[in-house]
């Protein structure tokens, strides 16, 4: 269980992020067209998992926008943005924002949050995913993780992207 904060108040997640050096757990989430999206679909690529509570909040929307902008120049890398928002909400946001350099998917009916230890167990966001970044190399190994200590702040984009090299 991780100790994190939401507006300065302690909240917890179901576990901890996978350890650096471990094999990233496979998962299946739901794409905006309701098709399955699996980690294994991106085998052989570098992957950035941008995990967040809801695209309908300012900080979460900013993280999707920032990774979309930064992903435009990342060769051989997929940025996968995941929340428990419905796939329709994610698709609506991306369409309205012109987001097309990242893949967005929903964990609304699967267990990525539990496999990656990021589902909130208490507080106002209970059941949603905590703001986290996991970077996975071409061999499927975790090379960087960050579970943002204060949920209302953005992740460290530069550090996450530096882990890709």
From TrEMBL:
HAMAP family: Tpx. InterPro entries: Redoxin (IPR013740), Thioredoxin-like_sf (IPR036249), Thioredoxin_domain (IPR013766), TPX (IPR002065), Tpx_CS (IPR018219), Tpx_Peroxidase_subfamily (IPR050455). Disulfide bonds join 60-94. CDD domains: PRX_Atyp2cys. GO terms for molecular function: thioredoxin peroxidase activity. Homodimer. NCBIfam families: PRK00522.1. Its EC number is 1.11.1.24. The lineage of its organism: Bacteria, Bacillati, Actinomycetota, Actinomycetes, Propionibacteriales. This is Thiol peroxidase. Thiol-specific peroxidase that catalyzes the reduction of hydrogen peroxide and organic hydroperoxides to water and alcohols, respectively. Plays a role in cell protection against oxidative stress by detoxifying peroxides. Keywords: Antioxidant, Disulfide bond, Oxidoreductase, Peroxidase, Redox-active center.
